Automatic annotation (TrEMBL):
GO molecular function terms attached to this record: iron ion binding; oxidoreductase activity
Domain called Aldehyde oxidase/xanthine dehydrogenase a/b hammerhead: residue spans: 35-151
UniProt feature coiled coil, ranges: none
Matches recorded under Pfam families: Ald_Xan_dh_C, MoCoBD_1, MoCoBD_2
PANTHER family, A to Z: ALDEHYDE OXIDOREDUCTASE MOLYBDENUM-BINDING SUBUNIT PAOC, XANTHINE DEHYDROGENASE
Signal peptide region: none
InterPro entries registered for this protein in UniProt: Ald_Oxase/Xan_DH_a/b (IPR000674), Ald_Oxase/Xan_DH_a/b_sf (IPR036856), Ald_Oxase/xanthine_DH-like (IPR016208), AldOxase/xan_DH_MoCoBD1 (IPR008274), AldOxase/xan_DH_MoCoBD2 (IPR046867), AldOxase/xan_DH_Mopterin-bd_sf (IPR037165)
Top-level taxonomic group: Bacteria
Transmembrane segments: none
The name this protein goes by in its record: Xanthine dehydrogenase
Biased composition (Basic and acidic residues): 15-29
Region (Disordered): 1-29
Source taxonomy: Bacteria, Pseudomonadati, Pseudomonadota, Gammaproteobacteria, Oceanospirillales
Length: 757
């Protein structure tokens, strides 16, 4: 029962059900989803006929509610209740406006309608609850609000003098790092790049907006919602309502995407819980797509200065990454934008810094690949600029700066196959056809360009427990409060349990999304598969130990008294030497009531291997674009990612994750931008008509290839996080391809056609 699993299975002769880990198994929840039988939060009908809430948002970004008249709304047809700061139930105060610690950020009280202050545009100022959604929405328009408006700060660029250093970045990293003498070395460098990039505000826009159905039963509330991490929602809501967490149950079996916007409670959850209690009736509230732009987090605007100094051979002697980011004035959030640069390339003199400028917006939140997504967009373009100045191929430049150990921590890498990813990608993509001279390849009206970028992302594990049970029919049930946000969690956990216990996939049921199940780290930070997979793996190992101990000590068992050290579970049988026993028969004999066990993994930061090794996943992105030489329209032609993320648990869902990330790369490079009106603090393009995200027609030929390895330093499975890796560097590869096509270097994202003309 060693705590490590067999090597990747796809090269084995057996392709049967007995070695399912790694196989491209179809999603086990797929049939439910395509048949419309997967019930999402707003579709739930539990607890009786619900009432419907509609949120009225503030029309100013900063100030006070001077007067609010709800009388017309209260008289409107179907209206049951109107809540404002004047009659909202007591909640825990928001707390000091200084940075909470990183764990507190996930779980702190987030009261709604708590007082007459307005802190950001579209902050809830009233909730109308009615018999129907339409009645609630119509009545919300009848509320008259008079504001005492105060001036706010909304523009990062004009307030850079007010920038300050936070204590820590997101994920608890140091704000600054310095090695050697960056300024001295940079000034002496023979070849330099000093480039400043701007990345805009962006919004997550999962397909399923935030939505909650709250149902009270006595002193306990059940929250059906769309969440990534149930433990955060449970603690956050309990703290807000001032009640013990065990009386808050969060249920979230199906989620239509999150991308980081569903890690903490938002207005829909808090207001539904408050209103349902007042009315003693279930209440449903969804944020509209427009409301999500102010009330469900965003990625902040940033200004990044990248300074690279190299010797004439292309060896970096100085590397600097300085980030200025906007942040909410009432709750700070500092993306770890320059942190990846501390581990990516060798350079003896190094400097990375994060600075914040407070603005009157809602809190920024974690958005897919926080830090690396905007950071690599800038840094990997700067590397492209340096390669051109050196007259070096961009891949060769990166190979010349491949470090032998983590350049700032001075510890070895667990595994690192970045160079292999770049070489394999170059071969597959036909990189040798790239002309290093920009603007030279033309097909009719199209200018063709190739670009590449590296990808790196830290590997995390979050504290996680899983429970696995087997019954007398040999049916296995795994339970944990993990979520499947579309990533494939149900499927990979089914595969891991089936392989660990040697039972067919059809014998395993994975139950997720209920806070009554053992606590996990949830879906976020690309830690979900490795954390929950490892916990399931350990739970199965513990279950096998319990089964064998019972079998050995049970006189009616054919395995009674045998030495079971070499026992294995394969094909629904327990094998011991020449003898085998059907697993279900064995359970019937030794534990007719069934038998269960738990398995746990600790947070990566509590492990020795985290201190001893630099753990990341890697990749190389390649892009080919065509740019219309008259209109500047940019079309993706091909994208390729070669990914090194340890062992792959399901070749199909892993590929889907990477393709999704690469699609985000297209959005970041070419389309996505939330435009903040700096007079009013309002995101003006707050819908999917004006906030552009890539659609199928924008994607074209997209390939993902995995260079598998087994990272035994990372966790018992040897798998590393990959969901967000697909984003990292993908946008930079595209921007570099646009430069290669046109000779125009756009440093203000997104790269839209007007900037090329
Ligand atoms: Mo991800 S931004 O940690 O959900």
């Amino acid at each position: 029962m060693a705590d490590s699993m067999t090597q990747p299975s796809r090269n084995r002769a057996s392709t049967g059900d007995d070695r399912p880990i790694g196989q491209p198994i179809d999603r086990v929840d797929g049939p439910l989803k395509v048949a419309g039988r997967a019930t999402y939060a707003y579709e739930q009908t539990l607890g009786g006929t619900p009432a419907y809430g509609y949120i009225r948002g503030a029309a100013i970004a900063r100030g006070r509610i001077a007067a609010i008249d709800t009388s017309a709304a209260e008289r409107a047809p179907g209206v049951l209740f109107v809540m404002t700061h004047r009659n909202a139930p007591a909640q825990t105060a928001f707390g000091p406006s200084v940075t909470p610690t990183v764990p507190e950020a996930f779980t702190r009280a987030r009261p709604m309608l708590a007082n007459d202050r307005v802190r950001y545009y579209d902050e809830p100022v009233a909730l109308v609850v009615a018999e129907t959604f339409e009645a609630a929405r119509a009545a919300a328009d009848l509320i008259e609000v008079r504001y005492a408006r105060e001036s706010g700060v909304f523009d990062l660029h004009t307030h850079l003098d007010d920038a300050y250093a936070p204590i820590r970045t997101n994920a608890g990293f140091e704000t600054d790092s310095a090695v050697g003498d960056f300024m001295g070395a940079f000034s002496r460098a023979a070849v330099k790049v000093d480039a400043t990039y701007r990345t805009p505000y962006e919004h997550h826009n999962p397909m399923e907006p935030h939505a909650t159905l709250a149902v009270w039963s006595g002193d306990e509330v059940t929250i059906h919602t769309s969440a990534q991490t149930l433990a955060n929602y449970q603690a956050g809501l309990a703290n807000t309502l001032g009640m013990p967490p065990e009386r808050v149950r969060i249920v979230s079996p199906f989620i239509g995407g999150g991308f980081g916007s569903k890690l903490i409670v938002h207005a829909d959850t808090v207001l539904a819980a408050l209103a349902a209690r007042v009315l003693a009736r279930p209440v449903k509230i969804a944020l509209t797509r427009q409301q999500m732009f102010a009330n469900a987090g965003y990625r902040a605007e940033m200004i990044q200065q990248v300074r690279l100094g190299a010797d004439p051979d292309g060896r970096l002697i100085a590397m600097g990454h300085d980030v200025h980011s906007a942040t909410s004035r009432f709750e700070e959030f500092c993306e770890q934008t320059a942190v990846f640069a501390r581990s990516l390339y060798a350079a003896p003199n190094r400097l990375t810094r994060h600075r914040l400028v407070g603005v009157d917006l809602n809190r920024g939140e974690w958005m897919r690949s926080p830090g690396e997504a905007p950071g690599m967009l800038a840094f990997e373009c700067a590397m492209d600029e340096l390669a051109e100045r050196l007259g070096l191929d961009p891949i060769e430049l990166r190979i010349r700066n491949e470090p032998s150990e983590d350049p700032e921590r001075g510890v070895p890498f667990s595994t690192r196959n970045l160079v292999d990813c770049m070489r394999e990608g170059a071969r597959r993509f036909g990189w040798e056809r790239r002309n290093p001279q920009p603007g030279c390849i033309r097909e009719g009206r199209q200018l063709i360009g190739y670009g590449m970028a590296a990808a790196i992302r830290p590997n995390y594990i979050g504290a996680t427990t899983a429970r696995v049970a087997i019954d007398a029919d040999g049916q296995v049930t795994a339970q944990l409060d993990m979520t499947d946000i579309g990533t494939g969690t149900y499927t990979i956990l089914t595969q891991i349990a089936a392989e660990s216990l040697g039972v067919p996939l059809s014998a395993v049921t994975v139950e997720l999304g209920d806070s009554r199940f053992p606590r996990t780290s949830g879906s976020g930070g690309s830690w979900g598969a490795a954390s929950t997979g490892s916990a399931i793996h350990r739970a199965c190992a513990a279950l096998k130990t319990r089964i064998l101990e019972a079998a050995r000590s049970n006189e009616s068992s054919p395995l009674y008294g045998m030495d079971l050290a070499e026992a294995s579970f394969v094909g629904g049988e327990v094998l011991v030497g020449e003898r085998s026993e059907n697993l279900a028969d064995l359970i019937r004999r030794i534990a007719p009531e069934g038998i269960d066990a738990e398995g746990t993994v600790a947070s990566v930061r509590e492990t020795e291997s985290y201190a001893a090794y630099s753990q990341h996943s890697y990749g190389a992105h390649f892009a080919e674009v065509a740019v219309d030489c008259d209109t500047g329209e940019i079309r993706m032609r091909r994208m390729l990612a070669v990914i090194g993320a340890g062992r792959i648990l399901n070749a199909k869902t892993a590929r889907s994750q990477i393709l999704g990330g690469m699609t985000w790369g297209i959005g970041a490079a070419l389309m996505e931008e939330s435009v903040l009106d700096s007079r009013h603090g309002h995101f003006v393009n707050h819908d999917l008509a004006e906030y552009h995200v890539p659609v199928n027609g924008d994607v074209q030929d997209m390939q993902a290839v995995f260079l598998e390895e087994h990272d035994d330093k990372a966790n018992p499975l040897g798998a590393k996080g990959l969901g967000e890796l697909g984003v990292c560097g993908a946008g930079a590869a595209i921007a570099n391809a646009v430069y290669n096509a046109t000779g125009v270097r756009v440093r203000e994202f997104p790269v839209t056609l007007d900037k090329l003309l």
